[in-house]
Write a structure and sequence with these properties.
Layout: H1 16-19, E1 28-33, H2 35-45, E2 51-56, H3 63-72, H4 78-86, H5 92-102, H6 120-132, H7 135-146, E3 151-154, E4 161-170, E5 173-180, H8 182-185, E6 193-200, H9 208-216, E7 219-222, H10 227-231, H11 233-236, H12 238-246, E8 250-254, H13 269-279, E9 287-290, H14 298-307, E10 311-314, H15 328-341
Parallel strand pairs: 1-2, 1-7, 2-3, 7-8, 8-9, 9-10
Antiparallel strand pairs: 4-5, 4-6
């Protein structure tokens, strides 16, 4: 594959245009998370800036990603693929390649095929990784193919495992159950209360490009997304937590549109903030964006945000359907107003 031996494709790099003195004036923004939550954030932020970086969790062990991770010993590509799809160019070319990346194979009835439920984008990303031997370079090539408006980076170039202690209550008492794997932990709230979450290995190195992007950013956006498996993992990785704590960028925490998920059953919005403070006690935030329909007590919530160094920003950012899904245009409006006020 000789065409992969030349220079990397030219795609936007966080801080690069500004450092070269050719910035168009839009802020350098880094969005951290995973899955559908990060996709929603990126779909909004791409409308506001040409200098956008996604930093994605790499602990997934379910579905197509889990199979590829187990069989090939690679990073789980699924959340990275979703981030790339959210950044695709808004042209026939970009939209077509987005649909190609998101396409899942399904065998004809009665056949259990080896490709069943694999997303083509996952296979493409892993192919690039194998050819190039570099996960960051592979994602750059995939981004160039889609005409991605920004870059996508893994939080670590090492596959991570997430585990948690879940407090179970029975007729005879309480006990802690160890739940290992993102796929299982994502539904652990239905079994009991998640009381502690850890990454393995705990001292894994952060992706150097991700650390650099955070250091050069004007704004860092954390969330929305599955709190324990997509949002908090960024605060558990020592080098990434340190970068988030020391960066001169302004920091925004974006809350979810529902507190009652399979992962966080029984938790309030205040409990979500408390978990952020527990895993990153030195992290200061400038703003916490929340839909007012999710906040039980605005005064208490605002006070909790103030204790983290920032202010609460309330805005209707959910889809008009009423489902707990962020609307990209409403979310973009909220981010635009927030960027302009700070």
């Amino acid at each position: 594959m000789a065409f992969l031996t030349g220079p990397l494709p030219m795609i936007p790099q966080t801080g690069a245009a500004r450092d070269a003195g050719v910035s168009d004036g839009s802020p350098a923004v880094v969005a951290l998370g995973g899955g559908h939550g990060l996709s929603a954030s990126l779909s909004a932020l791409r409308l506001l800036t040409t200098d956008l970086t996604a930093v994605v969790t790499v602990a997934d062990d379910g579905g197509s990603s889990g199979r590829l991770r187990h069989e090939l010993d690679v990073l789980p590509p699924g959340d990275l693929r979703m981030a790339l799809a959210a950044l695709c160019d808004d042209t026939d070319w970009g939209r077509t390649w987005r649909d190609v990346m998101q396409h899942r194979f399904q065998s004809r009835p009665g056949v259990n095929g080896s490709l069943d439920n694999h997303a083509l984008g996952n296979l493409l990303i892993v192919t690039l990784w194998e050819l190039l031997g570099d996960p960051v370079a592979g994602l750059q090539w995939a981004g160039a193919l889609l005409g991605a408006r920004g870059q996508v980076l893994p939080m670590s170039t090492q596959p991570l495992t997430i585990e948690g202690d879940v407090l179970r209550r029975t007729a005879t008492g309480e006990y802690l159950e160890l739940v290992t794997g993102q796929a299982r932990l994502a539904t652990a709230g239905a079994m009991g209360k998640v009381s502690e979450v850890r990454l393995t290995p705990a001292d894994a190195a952060a992706c150097p490009e991700a650390v650099t992007a955070i250091e050069r950013a004007d704004w860092v956006i954390l969330g929305p997304g599955s709190w324990y498996t997509s949002v908090l993992p960024h605060l558990m990785l020592p080098e990434l937590r340190s970068a988030l704590t020391r960066t001169k960028a302004k920091r925004c925490l974006t809350m979810n549109l529902t507190n009652e998920t399979k992962e966080t059953a029984g938790m309030s919005a205040l409990d979500h903030l408390a978990e952020v403070r527990r895993y990153a006690p030195g992290l200061r935030v400038d703003a916490v964006l929340a839909d007012p329909g999710v906040i039980e007590d605005r005064d208490a919530f605002s006070a909790a945000v103030a204790a983290m160094g920032g202010r609460a920003v309330f805005g209707k950012v959910g889809a008009a359907t009423g489902r707990p899904i962020h609307d990209p245009l409403r979310l973009a409006t909220a981010y635009h107003d927030m960027f302009g006020e700070n």
